[in-house]
């Protein structure tokens, strides 16, 4: 844990006592603050009380005595309307912040020069954060990984010289971190998302930009420039005097890092040269992962790693669970868990990576279904449909793709495994990439992916994918 000493002797309100909120309240308490917590959920309040955190209904609190309101990122700050705690805090002139802000203030007090890599973007944040941390750790650095990726930032080890904090930041977290000042900031990409919480795409992009805009003069802002929003941001940062490393997987750059085939190139005014290669790295298949890897490579170079160390780290990167996770091979057949693909756009990234796919899809359908995936239908040898979306998906596939309705994951895997084993392709792939939410049959995509992994591991003759 990182004790938050910057609020020692002060009263702090904490609303939202889930995972990160509970850790944040404990970190404030450990640092000497007087904490008053609250939550709409009675069970969360009981859990906080059991952990020694005082709670009270903040509707009745004296807000003039609070130094800050620490808000959980899932609680609305501005849209669709500010949460009632935000309104009360603003009326009393109390700053509204989050746990990322607490970390930033503590880092500035303890070790302002300690390496701090912060990553955001609409897509690829988790993979890029995990990859940066893996590259740093495989090169012998003390790498701490947390934030939106699932580990509360204040549960990590405290900042100190030589310790690298690699933090994934959602737009909600950035919105609550006015002092965000990473030594390396990464903005991977921007596309329309979370407008229910930010109102407009322009406001969403402005929030995301704050992460890279906060990079100090001696730091590095890494910005993917394959979308117009990020290109504009990169130009603006450069005009402001920031050191900007542009990233592209679509175009060669005159200055920055770009991808050609499976090579990551570094361009300078003096010319371009290869840095590392992605060929044969199964955990980084696809253009989306090439973008993630290029951003991570730029961050690793900024941290002082050389090309040899980065190449070794890329080769040993295992990938993330449920995101193009290679579970193993059975004969020539590769089994891939992409349960994180909860919509068609996400499934498209996986379908683009393989040529002979035995596709398990379905679940609780999203608006638009899989019509947008029609361009990938020639890659699919057969589809095995599950959940509520099965009939709808069958109608879309029609005569273009052989398919069957299996209903449940176990039946779909059994059928797909049998058909793939009989295929004559060089590398048949049994791919779970549902293009659907999981809530019709599973609590979340992680539980769905875990179930698939266990079913695959039970297949006789399965060996690790890298064997």
How does this structure look, described?
With 467 residues, the chain is an alpha/beta fold. The protein folds into three domains: 5-97, NAD(P)-binding Rossmann-like Domain (Rossmann fold, 3-Layer(aba) Sandwich); 100-316, Mur-like, catalytic domain (UDP-N-acetylmuramoyl-L-alanine:D-glutamate ligase, 3-Layer(aba) Sandwich); 325-457, Alpha-Beta Complex (Protein-Tyrosine Phosphatase, Chain A), CATH 3.90.190. Helix content is 34%, strand content 21%. It is built from 15 helices and 19 strands. The protein has helices spanning 19-30, 42-50, 84-91, 99-110, 125-138, 171-175, 195-198, 201-213, 228-239, 286-302, 307-316, 344-351, 390-397, 409-421, 445-457; strands at residues 11-15, 34-38, 66-71, 96-97, 116-120, 142-147, 163-168, 184-187, 220-224, 244-248, 256-260, 263-268, 271-277, 325-330, 333-337, 357-362, 380-386, 403-407, 429-432. The strands form three sheets. A nine-stranded mixed sheet has the order 6-7-5-8-9-10-11-12-13, with helices on both faces. Strands 14-15-19-16-17-18 form a six-stranded mixed sheet, with helices on both faces. It is globular and about 70 Å long.
